Amino acid sequence: MSKHHVSATINGEAVEYLCETQQTLLDVLRDELGLTGSKEGCGSGDCGACSVMLNGRLVCSCLVLGVEAAGAEVATIEGVAQGNSLHPLQQQFLEDAALQCGICTPGFIVAAKALLERNSNPTETEIRYWLAGNLCRCTGYDKIIRAVMGAATNMRQEARHG
Amino acid sequence: MEAIKYVRPNSVDDAVRSLASANEPVRVLAGGTDLLVQLRAGNVRPGLVVDIKGIAELKQIQVTAAGCRIGAAVAGAELSERADVVAQWPGVVEAFQLIGSTQIQGRASLGGNLCNASPAADSVPALIAAGARCTIAGPAGRREAAVEDIVISPGKTSLAQGEFIVDFLLPARPAHSGDAYLRFIPRTEMDIAVVGAGVSLTLDANGRCTAARLALGAVAPRPLLVPAGATALVGTPVDNAALEKLAAAASAACTPIDDKRGTIEFRTRVAGVLARRAAVIALQRAKGN
Ligand SMILES: Cc1cc2nc3c(=O)[nH]c(=O)nc-3n(C[C@H](O)[C@H](O)[C@H](O)COP(=O)(O)OP(=O)(O)OC[C@H]3O[C@@H](n4cnc5c(N)ncnc54)[C@H](O)[C@@H]3O)c2cc1C
Ligand code: FES
Ligand code: FES
């Protein structure tokens, strides 16, 4: 069976992998590349636990074929912290206890980061709509939304004091 | 299990060649938000997948004197960033934006929404109401068709073997035109339409309706153009009496299924209500330009 030989950039690094057509980008990240931060909740685009950035767009990696990432820029949860320093969103999720089992957390962080990069001061309603494709079964959404709002405030302050 | 082949042509001609010469079941891949779910569920088993996103023409958005031309593989998020299209066709854009979440919007296309051939596809009634036409490429060259002529029944289209959709044209309209799309779902996000209604209309300088189109989703085996909806509005100032007739025409066109998401009676009644509300929004928009 002939596999596809794919070259892509993942979290800023050139990566090569082999995959079959039916393997999703999520399968590739987790099973071929050992990047297990992206989670599989549903495999059908409903839960957002597999959220990644593909060429600057937020997508469900369970609905992208691994072979489609050829030549693409992929950004996953593994690239969000800078070395040992957490991203303000990660920091705020910890401080606000915005996670319990944590399965949904990587998807929420990747999705919220995409929002804050386009809109540094979103309203609560904007955050809720933007994150409607991310499901959480244990923490509840209020803490998550508050953590995103808190992180946004911190990031704006940081930008001001630069 | 046989390996599935994958190709990513970068021209329409190459895509047609791949589709037409395949001697195994073949599937076009746009955003994959329907196809990958079906692949995983084992509902489709293609031998070849033809990814059309490498074809520049299918990812283009052009606004010209003829109207807005939107590549079949343009994603919802990409179209939403085009203020000129949003301003001219708010109804089509809002229908497209209703599809799924932010993540789904990053991938879902108009071509995929149409060719998946669900009776409840949200963008399709809005496209039909807009009078949208599509360009179809195939082994015999290119042809054009009205969007309402594509879906035949759930999961079935009128496209022949080897054909695929290249783009959609939303034809330019006179001043004082507006469109709108509304759907009923039991929640506010991430659900399948129980009923969808799209209306597009044009007024003359005196506020009299000179052209109108009504289309409905999820109330028949395929998205419907309802000519009686146009008859109800044209020649009127889109007043209460005309809106009553429009609602009655919408309800009369329904042949819905009966399921736990909506009974026949409910869907039939809601089709009238949504048609009327969509017409009121389209009217306000038409007066505003
Ligand atoms: C979580 C979730 C929520 C969703 N919510 C909604 C919703 O609210 N409303 C709604 O209407 N839909 C919804 N959908 C369905 C889906 O996202 C849409 O139908 C979408 O527009 C499909 O586009 P795509 O580009 O992803 O299609 P694909 O999956 O790439 O293709 C769909 C079908 O069309 C064919 N096809 C694609 N492009 C072409 C073309 N140019 N020419 C010929 N054939 C083609 C493919 O072969 C396939 O059979 C949802 C899906 C998910 C996973
Ligand atoms: S695993 Fe991709 S959306 Fe749930
Ligand atoms: S923390 Fe468990 S699903 Fe969100």
Task: Provide an overview of this structure.
- The complex is a heterodimer of chains A (162) and B (289).
- In chain A, 36% of the residues lie in helices and 15% in strands.
- Chain A has 162 residues and is an alpha+beta fold.
- Chain A has two domains: 3-79, Ubiquitin-like (UB roll), CATH 3.10.20; 88-161, Orthogonal Bundle (DNA polymerase, domain 1).
- In chain A, β3 (51-54) and β4 (57-60) form a beta hairpin.
- In chain A, α2 packs across α5.
- The termini of chain A are far apart.
- The mean pLDDT of chain A is 97.
- In chain B, the strands form four sheets. A five-stranded antiparallel sheet of chain B has the order 4-5-10-6-7.
- With 289 residues, chain B is an alpha+beta fold.
- Chain B folds into three domains: 5-50; 62-171, Uridine Diphospho-n-acetylenolpyruvylglucosamine Reductase, domain 3, CATH 3.30.465.10; 177-286, 2-Layer Sandwich (Enolase-like, domain 1), CATH 3.30.390.50.
- In chain B, a hairpin with a 6-residue loop joins β13 and β14 (224-225).
- The model of chain B has no long low-confidence stretch (mean pLDDT 96).
- The A-B interface holds A 1-2, 4, 20-22, 24, 43-46, 48, 51, 54, 57-60, 62-65, 67-68, 70, 111, 114-115, 129-134 and B 3-6, 8, 29, 31-33, 36-37, 39-40, 49, 51, 53, 75, 77, 100-104, 106-107, 189-190.
- The complex binds flavin-adenine dinucleotide (FAD) and FE2/S2 (inorganic) cluster (2 copies).
- One FE2/S2 (inorganic) cluster (FES) binds next to loops of chain A.
Largest sheet of chain A: 5 strands, mixed
Radius of gyration of chain B: 19 Å
Name of the CATH superfamily of the largest domain in chain A: Beta-grasp domain
Q: Tell me the domain tally of chain A.
A: 2
Number of helices of chain A: 5
Please count the beta strands of chain A (DSSP E, at least 2 residues each): 5
List how many beta strands of chain B DSSP finds: 14
How much is the average pLDDT of chain A? 97
What is the 3D shape of chain A? globular
Q: Which structural class matches the secondary elements of chain B?
A: alpha+beta
